[in-house]
Amino acid sequence: MDCIHVSLKKHIDDSYRILIGKGILQQLSGEIEGLGSFNSQIIITDSNVNSLYGQRVLDELESSDANLHLLEIPPGEASKSLNTVIRLAKQLVSLHVDRKSIIIALGGGVVGDLAGFVASIYMRGIPYVQVPTTLLSQVDSSVGGKTGINLEEGKNLLGSFYQPKAVIIELTFLRTLSERDFQNGLAEIIKYGIISDEELFSLLEKESEAIKNRDLGLIEFLVERSCEIKSEVVKKDEKELGLRRILNFGHTLGHALESISDFRFSHGEAISIGMVAAAKISSKLGYLDDVSCNRIEMAIKRYGLPHCIPADLDTERIFTLIKNDKKALKGRPNFVLVRDIGNPFVTDEVPGKIVEETINGMKVASPFG
Length: 369
What we know:
Layout: E1 17-21, H1 28-33, E2 40-46, H2 47-61, E3 67-73, H3 82-94, E4 101-107, H4 109-121, E5 128-132, H5 135-141, E6 146-151, E7 154-161, E8 166-170, H6 179-196, H7 198-206, H8 208-212, H9 216-236, H10 251-260, H11 267-284, H12 290-302, E9 309-310, H13 315-323, E10 335-340, E11 343-347, H14 352-361, E12 363-364
Parallel strand pairs: 1-8, 2-3, 2-4, 4-5, 9-12
Antiparallel strand pairs: 6-7, 10-11
Helix pairs in contact: 3-4, 5-6, 5-9, 6-7, 6-9, 6-11, 10-11, 10-13, 11-12, 11-14
C-alpha cells in the first residue's frame, strides 16, 4: 500500500477588533482600509435597515476606490434560506465580485448570519465585516464567527465557523429599535449574567428601569461586557467543541420553540422561555436552589419577556425538535444547566421525562402572562 502524507500544520490568525461607541460608524471606512485594498465592497442588508441606514453607510464608504454595491433582502427569518443564498451569490457573480472583495453585513442577526455564510462560501471565502444594528446582534450573533441558514427541519442546520474581519457596533442604531427588538437583545444579556457574571446579573436586577429606558451609558457597558464574555469564550473554544457550548443556555428549547411556532417567537423571546425551562430543569435535578431559580424567572419577567409556553404547542413535536437539534448526539440533546448564577455546565443526561414534565408544567394560554 502506498501512503502519501499531506502535511497542513499551520497557524491562521483570525483575530479582529470590536469597536463599540456612539459615532463609531465613522470609523468603518478606515477599518476596512486597514484590512487591505479591495476591488469591491458589497453591503448586504434588509429593506427595513436599508431605509434607515443604507444611505448613511454608503456615504461613509464613498471615499473608497472600490466598486460599491448594496444588495437588499426581505426582512425576517424566512430570508435565512438556501434560496436567498443562491440569489445573493448570483447577484455577486453578475456584479463581477471577485476574491479581492469584502462584504459588509449591515443589519440584525438574520442579515449577519446570512451575509457571513455567503462570504464563507462565495469563491471559497471572501472577507466580511459585521455592522450589527440590533441589540441582539450587537451582543451575540455579530461576535464569534457563527454563520448559518435554516432548513425546514430546524434552525441553523447549514452553516460555518467563519470569523469577521471586524465588528463595528454603532450604539445610536438602538434608538430606532422597536420595544420588542430591544427586549430581544436584553434576553441575551441576561443569559451572559446567568452563565458567566453574577455581578452583571445583579446589575440587570437593580437597574432594570434605567436599562428599559435605554440609558446609553448603561447600554454601552452592557454591550461591552457581553462582547467581552463572548469573546473570552470564543478565544478558548472557537469551534464549539467544549466551553463555547455554555453560550447555548436556553437555546436547546428556544430553537425548538422558534421552529414550531413558525418564528412567531423571536429569538430573544424563545430563549427567554428556554432559560426559564433550563433553570427549572436544573432545580428539578437538584443542581440549582429555588431562590436562584426564582431570580432567573423574575429577571425574565422584569424585562417583559415571555416565561411560559403556549398551550397550543404540541409537547411531543417540541421534544422531537429538541432531539434533532444540531448539538444533539445520537438523539441525546445537550442541555446547558446551572449550579448557581455564574456557574453553568453542559450535560446530555437530562431524562426525557423531566424535559416533558417541565414543558407541560410551563404551558399557559399566554406566554407573557
